Every structure is written in C-alpha cells, then in structure tokens.
Amino acid sequence: MNEIEILVKRYPELLVAKDDILKAYKVLRDCYGCGGKLLIAGNGGSAADAEHIVGELMKGFKLPRKPDADFADKLVKENKELGTVLVENLQGALPAIALDGHPALFTAYMNDCEPLLCFAQQVNGYGKTGDVFLGISTSGNSKNVLYAATTAHAKGMKVIGLTGAKDSKLAQMSDVCIKVPQTETYMIQELHLPVYHCLCLMLENEFFGEIKDE
C-alpha cells in the first residue's frame, strides 16, 4: 500500500490512524468488488468533503480509467457518431452518492416528516446489503449521521466513521472508525482530506491500475 506509506510520511500524526484507514479501505474494496456503492453524509464542511469524495471516485483521480473494450464496442455500435465521443471521454466510476445533494427531496422530507432523518431516508431508499455508508462528523455525534448509520446497519450495510480524536457514538456504532488525532473542528477537517484522498487513491489503483501478475 504505497499510498498509505506516503500519507503517514507526509502527515506523521496520522500514523495512529493507519490501521483503521487500511481496514476502511478493505471494507470499501470488498464493497466495490461485489458491485456495491458508497453513500456519504456529513454536515457543513463535512458535506463539502462528501461531495469531494464523490468527485474523486466517480471519475478519474490520477488514472485515465478508459472504458473497457467490450463497453467501447457497444457504445460505437449503439451510435457511431455519439459513441465515438463517448469512448474518448467516458471514465470508469466507483459508484458514490453524497446525501446532501438532493435539495428537492431534502426540503420535502424536512417539511413533511422529521428533519433529522433526511440522511436516513436516503440510506433507506438507496442502500442495499453489501453497500457502505460513510458518516463524516468531526464530533462523531451528529444526530442525522447517527440515524443514517443505524438505518445502514439495518439494511445490511457496513458503516465507516470519519471523526476527530474523541470517542463518540459514531465510533461506537461503526464497523470501522477513522479517528484523526485532533479535537478542534477545523483541524479535524484539515486531516480528513488527506485521509480520504488516500482511500480514493488506493481504490483507484485497485480497480483501474495496471493488471498485476497472479
């Protein structure tokens, strides 16, 4: 795992989280390997992080991720003119959805139902057994994230937490919790970014890197 060695070399304080980062990677690798998807939720800056993660997973991060030959042939056969453009530009994706990004659904549910269950409702709608829910919370106690994590487990999903150093309800209910060694909100967020970049790099290399010899 060259990416994680680079991470802890650049951010030595994250050495304490190394094992949990690797565990989270394996959970995500197994999810994607079985055709699953990632649902991500957070509030404020953590919502921005959720969107950032989706951007790294749903398109090329460092690698080109060209369509495979079989899919490329199908695109051209479907429509030669349009398919040729698609073959040149489409990129392989690791399915990920940020749950903050659906304002019509969000506001309708908040108005009609229980506002704190907005993330949980989407986990209920999108989630299935084998998927993963990533809850990002600097405190680890954000109620709407906890409701979503509870729903995820009930749906047969794994839960990954990304929090600060303090123990929290999210840490206790997660299958894996990455607790970065800071307690101030902005300092926690500054360490969350390199952690999830590392996870995205490892996943991209696993699914879109060069084929390794058996």
Q: Brief overview, please?
A:
Residues 28-209 form the SIS domain. It contains ten helices and five strands.
What would you note in describing this structure?
- This protein is α/β, with parallel strands linked by helices.
- The chain is built from ten helices and five strands, in the order H-H-E-H-H-H-E-H-H-E-H-E-H-E-H.
- The protein has helices at 2-10, 18-33, 45-57, 69-78, 80-89, 103-112, 118-126, 143-154, 169-173, 185-208; strands spanning 38-41, 96-98, 132-136, 158-163, 176-179.
- A five-stranded parallel β-sheet has the order 2-1-3-4-5, with helices on both faces.
- Strand 4 (158-163), helix 9 (169-173) and strand 5 (176-179) form a beta-alpha-beta unit.
- Helix 1 (2-10) runs antiparallel to helix 10 (185-208) and helix 3 (45-57) runs parallel beside helix 10 (185-208).
- The chain is globular, with a radius of gyration of 18 Å.
- The mean pLDDT is 96.
- It comes from Coprococcus ammoniilyticus.
- InterPro entries: GmhA/DiaA, SIS_dom, SIS_dom_sf, SIS_GmhA/DiaA_subfam.
- It holds the Pfam family SIS_2.
- Residues 28-209 form the SIS domain.
Cα-atom radius of gyration: 18 Å
Q: Poorly predicted ranges (pLDDT <50, ≥5 residues)?
A: none
Number of helices: 10
Order of helices and strands: HHEHHHEHHEHEHEH
* Main sheet: strands, sense, barrel: 5 strands, parallel
Tell me the helix content.
55-70%
Structural class call reads alpha/beta
Molecular shape:
globular
The overall average pLDDT, rounded, is 96
Q: From the structure provided, what is the oligomeric state, counting identical versus distinct chains?
A: single chain
Termini separation: 17 Å
The count of DSSP E runs of length 2 or more, i.e. the number of strands, is 5
Strands in their spatial order, largest beta sheet: 2-1-3-4-5
In what range is the share of β-strand residues?
5-15%
